[in-house]
Amino acid sequence: MEKRRIIEVRDLVKTYGDFTAVKGISFDVYENEVFGLLGPNGAGKSTTLEIIETLRQKTAGSVMVAGIDLDKDPEAIKQIIGVQLQTSGYYPNLNLVELIELFGGLYNQPVDPMALLREFNLEDKAKAKFKALSGGQKQRFSIATTLINRPRIIFLDEPTTGLDPQARRNLWTLIQQVRANGTTVVITTHYMDEAEFLCDRCAIVDSGRIIAIDSPDALIDQLVAGGFERKKEVKKASLEDVFIHLTGKDLRED
Ligand SMILES: Nc1ncnc2c1ncn2[C@@H]1O[C@H](COP(=O)(O)OP(=O)(O)OP(=O)(O)O)[C@@H](O)[C@H]1O
């Protein structure tokens, strides 16, 4: 089956004063895939995401989201995407149910707060305030809120930064579920194991340019085909495997 493009970025440029943060990048994201933007700090990942999310003006190039031209109808793009809010965006006096109801009202979308909280293992926290949640719960809640307007695409900027291994793996499962329900996921991460586990394809961005784009498997195969060998013999388990083996897979925060 032919893959359908849901995001088309062409020759995208972003300058801040004299500095060019994004230097003419082009890529496609296919419908219902998990697509990763990987790259060192300052590579231009967040800038690129924020332009697609309609939150930042581009300098040049074109962006199409689900056939909608960013230059012509950014409002229509906003309606079909879900974006994680900065944590400061959550009203401090509202509990999780009230926050979901508020967002549902803003989006003019009927929403069942308890069903959404259940999906993200946050049922017990329905009456809690956002600031009282653990790091993992906060991330789960902020991903849940991206789904309130029933978007076709969600954007997750470093969703597992700072989480313990259990919470990280739990979030991976939730992201896979979101994708299994038909949503396209665009993610940035600094964790290569995360990208390898979650992403169907990823783009490696460096100094504002895409220097590689493919599936994780294909990228690894290309490196190996070029004669690359690991310096150390690969062990059959990692320190993270030891950690999970000793401490279990259950979330600790609840
Ligand atoms: N508002 C701004 N004004 C000036 N320069 C900016 C602005 N926002 C970002 N930059 C610069 O643009 C470059 C790209 O930043 P961006 O946040 O897109 O990178 P990133 O790949 O997301 O990095 P990180 O992994 O650290 O989040 C950086 O050099 C950054 O300092």
Describe it.
By secondary structure, the protein is of the alpha/beta class. The chain has a single domain, classed as Rossmann fold (3-Layer(aba) Sandwich). Helices cover 35% and strands 24% of the residues. The chain contains 9 helices and 10 strands. The strands form 2 sheets. The protein has a 6-stranded mixed beta sheet, sandwiched between helices. The N and C termini lie far apart (42 Å). The mean pLDDT is 91. The site of adenosine-5'-triphosphate has 11 residues, from strand 2 and helix 1. Adenosine-5'-triphosphate (ATP) binds next to strand 2 and helix 1. GO terms for molecular function: ATP binding. InterPro entries: AAA+_ATPase, ABC_transporter-like_ATP-bd, ABC_transporter-like_CS, ABC_transporter_ATP-binding, P-loop_NTPase.
